[in-house]
């Protein structure tokens, strides 16, 4: 049986598909979405424009973008009955658990979502996901604060609407700071897609059984939550806080990370594909300095991050294993500066990655890819006869 099967744990050397969406070069530290570099897009584009590019393959004309944005702005409301599901969560529920549950519940509120949908029906489900994720995401934050949830405001752009729903209170008008909105746009662009990473592969695998798009995206949210994947951005800040509380002794944590028996990893370091600096980390590191200066914030955790990065980049253990800061290493420092709480960091990653998941799910379905069903090498018990319970020792 093992004649023709090769096992590749973690699919480190397995290509699962052909895709025209995102190009990574791990050695050169290159990341392009539909041929455009993330350096260009992060500087010159908006998150919603990049979402359009990833999903439909081209940068939108003014008319196309206006229609796309109008569709999204007019679908941001969530069915009021979803509030009842939401109200059932405990106040300390992790926002990723709430998000994956409510996105999965969308398949119950839109039961027409299925494999036979026309392109127009699928387009409507795509708009609903893009439009409603920020609304759902902000609910869990407001509940955790004991504050009333906010409704989306159609006159606001995507990022401003999210920030308003997060931070607006009935007692005071909330004015979106353009520095904050611009930083959020840039962060979401940098998280928008990343070829066949763990959560995207999950979305494609679930979608390959012709499960509906809501269930497929919900499975991606669950995969992203893991601390080795999107959950790392929360782990990084908690690690940096621990180092700060520990007197800023970065070398102690570097030594722990080098000692396998400690079970400790430097979160925000290392990557399956990038064996050089993650190009997103390079942009985010610069943006972190920029945003904190503009907002007049002096966050001691940034200094610890820079000290940790410098020490690791000079340490043979990390150099030999080509462990560099990844997208999660500095992103939390910016989210914190924007007022976003630590347990919402991975939710921010999900909001950013949503257009990538959608684009990859759509490509898998349009290309009529077969159901994903890998094989195995069996290592269990040889064939044996059944033993009645009375005779078992
Ligand atoms: C994301 O895939 C993507 O594209 C993901 C992502 C995306 O946009 O979708 O880029 C987003 O998930 C970024 C990664 C966030 N995760 C973390 O920051 C968690 C910490 N990093 C690691 O757990 C690890 O680096 C991974 C999970 C990112 C990659 O793991 P691999 O490719 O399976 O590498 P590995 O675990 O086999 O490690 C190789 C070696 C091992 O040592 P040896 O067995 O060779 O002696 O490097 C060591 C590991 O022990 N190592 C680390 C380490 N990461 C790897 N040692 C200390 N600290 C680390 N962070």
Structural notes for this entry:
By secondary structure, this protein is mostly helical. Helices cover 55% and strands 3% of the residues. The chain has helices at residues 38-44, 47-56, 62-73, 80-87, 95-109, 119-144, 158-167, 178-190, 198-207, 213-225, 232-245, 250-258, 279-294, 300-313, 316-320, 327-337, 345-366; strands at residues 22-25, 30-33, 36-37. Strands 1-2-3 form a three-stranded antiparallel beta sheet. A hairpin with a 2-residue loop joins strand 2 (30-33) and strand 3 (36-37). Helix 8 (178-190) packs antiparallel against helix 16. The chain starts with 21 loop residues before the first strand and ends in a 27-residue tail after the last helix. 44% of the residues are buried. The structure holds s-citryldethia Coenzyme A. The site of s-citryldethia Coenzyme A has 23 residues, from helix 16.
Q: What is the helix tally?
A: 17
Structural class: mainly alpha
Count of beta strands: 3
Specify the helix fraction band: 40-55%
Distinct ligands: s-citryldethia Coenzyme A
Cα(first) to Cα(last) distance is: 33 Å
Task: Categorize the overall geometry.
Answer: globular
The helix/strand series, from N terminus to C terminus, equals: EEEHHHHHHHHHHHHHHHHH
Q: Characterize the biggest β-sheet.
A: 3 strands, antiparallel
Whole-number mean pLDDT:
95
Output the strand order for the largest sheet: 1-2-3
Oligomeric state, counting identical vs distinct chains: single chain
Residue runs with pLDDT of under 50 for 5 or more positions:
none
Approximately how much beta-strand content do the residues carry? Answer: under 5%
As a whole number of angstroms, the C-alpha radius of gyration is: 22 Å
Family: Belongs to the citrate synthase family.
Catalytic activity: oxaloacetate + acetyl-CoA + H2O = citrate + CoA + H(+)
Keywords: Acyltransferase, Transferase, Tricarboxylic acid cycle
Protein name: Citrate synthase
